[in-house]
Amino acid sequence: MVKNELDALEHKLAQLAQVSQRLRSENHQLRQALAEIESKHRQCSDKIDSAKARLQNLLIQLPEDA
Q: What pLDDT, in 10s, does the model give residues 31-51?
């Protein structure tokens, strides 16, 4: 009986190790994806800020009575 219990426990531990490894890998992939998305977000924000500044400069240059 003890042998069967030990075998079952060993099997469960092996399964746990597999799940843990899979989750570590998935977590790593998600962190990479998040870093890429954050980088793209910063680029978009920079472009928006640049466009705002250009538009503000254009508005300043418009004649008052236009």
A: 999 999 999 999 999 999 999
Q: Provide the token pair at 32.
A: 């990479």
Quote the distance between the C-alpha of residue 62 and its chain's center. 42
Whether 24 shows a pLDDT value over 70: the answer reads yes
Question: Could you tell me where the beta strands, DSSP code E, fall in the chain?
Answer: none
pTM above 0.90, yes or no: no
- Distance, in Å, from the CA atom of 42 to the CA atom of 34, rounded to the nearest integer, reads 12
Q: 1-39 burial by CB neighbour count: b if 16+ within 10 A, else e?
A: eeeeeeeeeeeeeeeeeeeeeeeeeeeeeeeeeeeeeee
